[in-house]
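Q: What structure does this chain adopt?
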Amino acid sequence: MTNPFYPEHALFIESVRRMMASDLAPHLREWEDAGYFPDSVFTQLGARGYLGMVIDEAYGGIGGDLRLAAAWCETLGELCDLGLVTAVNMHALVISAAINRYGTVSQKEQWLPRAVTGEAIGAYAFTEPGAGSDLASLRTKAIKVDGGWQLDGSKTFITNGARADFILVLARTDPTAGYHGFTTFIVDTTLPGFSVTRTLDKLGWRSSDTAELSFSGLIVPDDAVLGTVGQGWIQASNNLNWERLMLTLTTLGGMRACLRDTTRYAHQRSTFGRPIATHRGVEELLIEMNRRLILAEALTHHALTLFLTSTPCRAEVSQAKRKVCDDAVWLADRALQIHGGYGYTTEFSPEKWWRELRLMPIGGGTSEVMGLIVRKELGLG
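A:
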């Protein structure tokens, strides 16, 4: 099995696990019941340096690489609140990273130091009602006006949308230019014309806000353009492999934690005078769950290794996301089954793992879309 991490990552991984156990895990049910985890989570993580992993040192980051970020994603995925995990990772590893990569010096100076400390929270808005994974169908438009651009449109399923201080908004700037007709704007959410239409009530990921946003006559200055006009589609496409790997790594961590909890329970819970782990039916389930976890690790780490070595890997990433995320839901469902009636209560973790993992075959491109990508990459479609 390909191991993409170096020995020095082991110390980092253990430090993340200690942080999770002390600072985050004790509050997960409380935050889920409240339907919101506090913004102080961002500042706490920022104070420890976790929000600046891939940000240049000049702007408060540590200048780390995506291998370190991958180790973080897989480890943080063991936390039984993947909404919180994804909210943090989108802010630190996608949104802030995009400004670090494409932004001007003034844009970096304006947003990155506060993003790294968690004092300013970011969101990424490109999904729209009726568009889903079809980015070419986006309707949010930006029209050139004196000194800037006017944005009009709506976005949905936006992680951190309700709490964001700044948002990367993908808008159509030239309907005749095809893929070159899209531009990314950095939108300050205090500007007139921005509003949160509503937050979505969800099956899982309940502690993180997922919002619908509206842009109505919102004027941004010319220097709000991220990169250059017409580069938005390319920016979004270039980042898709990494975003999907982030979700797959997170899912892998969740699978590992769910199986760990279930195995422990099966050895502690006894029926007919012996642990249920020794009963043939449960034993076979645990073996199959472990087999699928090992396969998930192999697929994920293979795709990650290709990505980190700049090897074309669109098919491998898509295939890993589809297989790993689908198997994670299967594993969580069997974990609930092994717990029996207790699995259907909130006293144990399987019901929450099922709800947290169930979104993974949907978010970042559905399993069906991943299948279409693999077919295309293999020349079958």
